[in-house]
Amino acid sequence: MLDRYERNVIITALTVSALFIFSIFYALGAKRQDVTECLPYNKTYETARVEQIDGRTYQIFYVARMWNFEPAISYIPVGSEVDLFVTSLDVVHGFNVFDKNVNLMAVPGGVSKTTVKFTEPGVYKIVCHEFCGTGHQNMEAEIIVNYPRK
Ligand SMILES: [Cu+2]
Question: Please, which domain of life does this record's source organism belong to (predicted)?
Answer without folding.
Answer: Bacteria
